[in-house]
Amino acid sequence: MLKIWGRANSVNVQKVLWVCDELSLPYERIDAGLQFGRVRDPDYLDLNPNGQVPTLVDGTFVLWESNSILRYLVMQYGPTSQLYPNDPKLRASIDRWLDWSLSTLQPAERPVFLSAVRTPAAERNLVQFEADLMTVATRWKLLDDHLSGRFFLESDKFTIADIVLGAFAKRWFGLAGVERPSMPNLERWYSRLEQRAPFKKHIDLPLT
Ligand SMILES: N[C@@H](CCC(=O)N[C@@H](CS)C(=O)NCC(=O)O)C(=O)O
Predict the structure, then answer these.
(1) Which of 13, 86, 96, 187 has the largest count of CB atoms under 10 Å?
(2) What are phi and psi of 18, to 5 degrees?
(3) Each residue's pLDDT tens digit, 85-133
(4) Could you identify the atom of ligand 1 that is nearest to the CA of residue 39?
(5) CB atoms < 10 A from the CB of 141, how many?
(6) pLDDT value of residue 76
(7) CA 67 → CA 11, 131, 163, 179, 196, distances in Å?
């Protein structure tokens, strides 16, 4: 059985769990990271020298980097799945969103998430928070524009691009007490994702 190391409230672990459920893959998840520790233990560092989660163990095969894990799982266990189609242009377009999520979206949304969710209100730098919020809003606006006239991110079929950005979108729409500019295309797309059972199970949890 697949083993997935990582706490269930990590966005990068959540993406992996979502894909497993879309592919009906059984797995064992082992808590690690933050309050669960383990990630600095030598045996864990042997698996993942970054000391981060998630890490996938599939028999003797070990893989870290969440987006690489998603691609591997579909290629290995769901090769005909629409989640990551073979067509090179479509695949490259999906990969573009996976890269964008790590290179452009996450660096912008992380400070907002950390401040709003993991920093006591009295210790928040509100000026910085508002500036960070505006930056991340411009990132989501790019997606809102892209989604105009589209049902899902690529090919109008649900793919791993929707999984990756959908997991991050929860950290946008789930923020309490913040004013978000209206983004109707993004909101419609997000409400489609909310209807999926794996989203309800793994993503639609309180932000912690
Ligand atoms: N690029 C990596 C990032 C991994 C990452 O940042 N993981 C975070 C959780 S989302 C982590 O391990 N944080 C430390 C911890 O949980 O102890 C990936 O996508 O897998």
Answers:
(1) 13
(2) -60, -45
(3) 999 999 999 999 999 999 999 999 999 999 999 999 899 999 999 999 9
(4) 17
(5) 14
(6) 97
(7) 11, 28, 10, 30, 20
Task: Answer whether 65 contacts ligand 1 (Cβ < 6 A).
Answer: yes
Contact 85, 153 (CB under 8 A): no
Q: Which of 52, 95, 77, 83 is nearest to 158 (CA)?
A: 83
Residue 71 has pLDDT above 90, yes or no: yes
Q: Any idea which architecture 88-201 has in CATH?
A: Up-down Bundle (1.20)
Q: In terms of C-beta density within 10 A (0-12 exposed, 13-18 middle, 19 or more buried), how is residue 30 classed?
A: middle
Cβ 2 vs Cβ 26: under 8 Å: yes
What is the pLDDT, as a whole number, of residue 177?
87
What are the φ and ψ backbone dihedral angles of 30, each rounded to 5 degrees?
-115, 125
Residue 141 alpha carbon to ligand 1 centre in Å: 25
How far away, in angstroms, is 20 Cα from ligand 1 center?
Answer: 18
Domain definitions of the chain by residue range = 2-77, 88-201
C-alpha span between 163 and 203 (Å, rounded): 10
Please state which CATH number belongs to domain 2-77. Answer: 3.40.30.10
Residue corresponding to tokens 């059985």: 1
Say what the pLDDT of residue 79 is: 86
